[in-house]
Amino acid sequence: MRRAAPSATRAAHRLGWLLLCVTFAACASESETETAASSSGTPAAEPAPSAYVVRLDSDRSDPGQFQLTEEGPALRILTGPAGIAYRAEDAVQSGDFRVDATFTQYGAPVGYREAYGLFLGGLELDGPELEYTYLLVRPTGDFLIKRRIGEITETIVDWTPHTAIRVVAAEGDEPENTVTVEVADGQLNFILNGQLAHSMLATEARPFGITGLRANHRLDVRVTNWTLAISATR
Q1: Which residues make Cβ contacts (< 8 Å) with residue 30, sequence separation at least 6?
Q2: In the chain, what are the helix, strand and coil shares in percent, each to the nearest 5?
Q3: ∠ CA 156-78-165 to the nearest 5 degrees?
Q4: In this structure, what are the phi and psi dihedrals at residue 8, rounded to the nearest 5 degrees?
Q5: In angstroms, rounded to a whole number, what is the distance separating the alpha carbons of residues 51 and 108?
Q6: Count of H helices and E strands in the chain?
Q7: To the nearest whole percent, how much of the chain has pLDDT over 90?
Q8: Per-residue burial over 68-85, b = 16 or more CB atoms within 10 Å of its CB, e = otherwise
Q9: How far is CA 118 from CA 47, 134, 185, 195, in A?
Q10: Angle of CA points 172, 103, 139, to nearest 5°
Q11: Is the Cα torsion angle 70, 72, 75, 79 positive or negative in sign?
Q12: Cα gap 56→113, rounded to integer Å
């Protein structure tokens, strides 16, 4: 994720490997790891811990089935169970800000209805009373806005078609969608590929807190241009 502000130089955040089995090709078997270590004469290096935290929707889900890897400046997310990924430092306490991410979806058949997107206003994300508001899109061309508090989710905008969303129209399509949420002049705006999809008073959604990514079940998405920009006037 890139973090930007008019008063500071935008810096690229270093993304490490999660302590999960997180690559398609790098999840070698134990025997392969032992062979590589013995042939080189030195123990195989342990992967660096990631700055990203993953929180699954259900405590009963297997964390190893939510895989997040670095692909250069991008992130690749493959899911079995649904969940969120975030970094504690990507937080906003007040004022105006904007969060953007571009998602490319792979392997979705026509009519596939699992969704991905952004969340903001994350509070108590490591506890039972977590809170956040999220904007999701899916490759059938519709979007959803919800608020989660603990185990309860409140629908702000139910699944609604929007012409800005790029869809899976034929087998093999890999739609790319840029999802944006911003707080500006007291309004909370939800933007899809540059087009405003919904706007509401920021105070109605409690937007301040941690920002991050959300991916539902059985998805393969690549995330680029993941940026948090904070107004210098806040």
Answers
A1: none
A2: 5, 50, 40
A3: 45
A4: -140, 155
A5: 29
A6: 1, 16
A7: 74
A8: bbbeeeebbbbbbbbbbb
A9: 27, 6, 21, 16
A10: 50
A11: negative
A12: 19
Q: What Cα–Cα distance (Å) separates residue 138 from each residue in 65, 110, 164, 179, 215?
A: 20, 11, 12, 11, 10
For range 189-208, the mean pLDDT: 96
Q: What are phi and psi of 22, to 5 degrees?
A: -120, 10
Q: For residue 43, report the phi and psi dihedrals to the nearest 5 degrees.
A: -65, 145
Distance separating alpha carbons of residues 148 and 122, to the nearest angstrom: 9
Cβ proximity of 63 and 85 under 8 Å? no
Owner of token pair 């997310």: 77
More confident residue, 165 or 45: 165
**Has this prediction a pTM greater than 0.90?**
no
Residue 191, both tokens: 């933007």
Rounded alpha-carbon distances, angstroms, from residue 130 to 41, 46, 121, 150, 151? 47, 31, 10, 5, 8
Identify the band that residue 65 occupies on the pLDDT scale cut at 50, 70 and 90: very high
All structural domains of the chain, each given as residue ranges with its CATH number in brackets, are 2-230 (2.60.120.560)
